[in-house]
Amino acid sequence: MKATVSEIPVVHLIDDDESLRTALRRVISTAGHAVKTYGSAAEFLLAREGSLRGCLVLDVRMPGGASGLELHKALVRQGETLPVIFITGHGDIPMGVQAIKDGAFDFLTKPVESDCLLTTIRDALATEEATCEASDRLREIAARASRLTPAEREVFRHVVEGLANKQIAAELHCSERTVKAHRSQVMSKMGASSLADLVHLSEMLALPAA
Amino acid sequence: MSGSRFRPAIRAFAALAVSVAVAAGAEPPRVQIPEGPELQTETPGLWAEHPAAALVTVAVVGLQAFMISGLILARIRQKRAEKELRLSEARFAGIFRSSPAAMGIVRQTDGRIVDVNPEWESVTGISRNDAIGRTPVEAGLLIDGDAEGRLRRFLEAGKPLENYEHVLRAADGGNRWLSLSTELLTLHDEACFIVVAKDVTEFRESEKARQQLAHTSRLAMLGEMTASIAHEINQPLGAILSNTDAAEMLLARPDPPLDEVKQILTDIRRDDRRASEVIKKVRSLVGLREIQQRPLDLNEVIREAVKLITHEVQRRGVTIIHDLDDNLPLIQGDPVQVEQVLINLMLNAMDAMKGVPMIRRTLTLRSWQKDANSVATSVEDHGHGIPSDDLGRIFDSFFTTKQNGMGLGLALARSIVELHSGSLFAENNASTGATFYLILPINVSSPHEGNGLGNTRRSSDR
Asked: By the CB < 8 Å criterion, does B275 face chain A?
């Protein structure tokens, strides 16, 4: 039930200052995470292969203006859901706040305290995993729902609305026995074990995709 | 002088010669015009009768005349020389008296003042009567420290001074600065120092004002760069902090990887030095200092200047291109001041490119040997260029096109360059933007030796 891309989560670290990048890498990897480092946004984009699991840690300011923020915006546009943690310098706090509004996971101010960094990374990875799981689940439910016949779908809808079998039969102009048969198909195809489950599943299906 | 010694002898000799001549009774032979057939008789002349004596007499007279005329000529020459000397002394005295420069004469043997001119009296406020016969210390001119000793050493050394700066403490508290030059010469058979004093108080004050202005301008420039400087210091500090945490975590393991820990320590030391360098650089820029001229490698100054504004460069998304001549001869200059000029030019260039798309935001730094005596460097940008109306005025004081500009950067830059005997000017590029050219003279004494900035040798920085 894990991600479709079978990768262990990787912390992607982007900072143009070599010594800081090395030091942060040491802290993150010693804490037990897999780390990949890049000297610039361009380097990161070039090395990216397929969908990424993990999180992104990057400096708000990098050569070429506020390209940290620009990279984030570009990733969002591309539908990348990787959590982004910004590192900001003194005076960049408004930028950090804006980044969060734009969907960044969090921002940390320099000098970066290691325990803060590691906690934030752990939270980001946990969130990412939860999100991954949720979207995987949703995908699965949608796949199941697509296997319902049109008639089964109708029955599904009415059952969830709270109608009794007899009422549904009246609605659909068929026998109650037919309704019961469809209903049990829906339950098994959807993997529901109770009416409550079914209602819950239908709510999830009604939610717009992330 | 020599004539007077010989005079009695010559007088005696002349008397003897005259008496010999008289004794010889010299008479000119008479020529008789014959009247008829008479016998012509001649009185035998002196020559015929006493040829030897006559010869001696003529010789003596001739010699005497020769010697007398020699004496007379010598005497004439001497008198002329004496007259010339008197005229010369009078001329000297005249110059001395009327010179617009303050002059004094001090005897080398005892250091006493022999004479002073009216301008000297006016500059020092000491009258001629009070000065003559006293030493400069007694007259109140030299009062600081071991004045007596310094004066004595100076007199004994007997070497001339050139533009020695000396402060005169006036009675009313106002100090005047004098620039003293001395020459040793002989006057009236005595070895004396003639001292010419120039009042340079105004010059020094304007020098101080100029230094103050340079200082203020440097501070203003630094103020603009505060964010950059803070960043430059905080980066290595942040790395040190993270490295320390990593090392701690590694050492907490049951089998710590000591090699990695050692590497971490090396990196920490390197980052510490990085931070120190930035602070050192900032302090050198902030300190109020006088110009210190030394042999400089212009390329190194350029590189240091770029390093200092690295963060600004990154922040503005500018790309710097270096086109520096490796075999550049050394120039003579003050590293901090030259660096200040370069930073100013580079910041201006970057300002000019604010609206330019990033891909064209390039700043090209070049250096080359212009000719046998000078070295050139240029800062080229691709900004909006300089309006032709302003080209002639951009180096004027208080001329600025910036909203918050003081208009002092380029004016000060030019004055610094001129103090280095160089030149600074600008041209618009054929394509876009402008180029600023900085020409500086080559250090003649050692064009290809010496160290670069010599920063580590300066001990006077605060």
From this structure: no
Q: Is residue A10 part of a domain?
A: yes
Check CB contact under 8 Å for A112 and B238. Answer: yes
Report whether the peptide linkage leading into residue B329 is cis, meaning its omega lies within 30 degrees of zero: no
CATH of residue A161's domain is: 1.10.10.10
CATH fold group of domain B291-462: Heat Shock Protein 90 (3.30.565)
ipTM score assigned to the predicted complex: 0.75
Q: What is the pLDDT of residues A92-132, one digit of tens each?
A: 788 888 888 888 999 998 889 999 999 999 999 999 888 88
Chain A residues within 8 angstroms (CB to CB) of chain B: 16-17, 19-20, 22-24, 26-27, 30-31, 61-65, 89-91, 110-114
Helices (H), B252-334: 258-286, 298-308, 310-315
Q: What is the extent of the structural domain holding A155?
A: 147-205
Alpha carbon B229 to its chain's center: 37
Number of domains making up chain A: 2
Q: Mark yes or no for CB contact A111/B274 under 8 Å.
A: no
Give per-residue pLDDT as tens, B396-405.
766 677 665 6
Cα end-to-end distance, chain B, whole Å: 68
pTM of the predicted model as reported, rounded to 2 decimal places:
0.50
Closest approach of A126 to chain B, Cα-based (Å): 22
Beta carbons of B385 and B446 less than 8 angstroms apart: no
Query: Phi/psi of residue B254, each to 5°?
Result: -60, -35
Give the per-residue pLDDT at B316: 82
CB contact under 8 A, A23 and B234: no
**Residue B295, strand partner residues:** B332
pLDDT given for residue B32 in this prediction:
45
The reply to whether residue A23 touches residue B246, judged by beta carbons under 8 angstroms, is: yes
Q: Distance between CA B311 and CA B233 in Å, rounded? A: 11
Give the integer Cα–Cα distance in Å for B460 and B332.
19
Q: Which are the contacts of B309, defined by CB distance < 8 A and separation ≥ 6?
A: B225, B228, B343, B346, B347
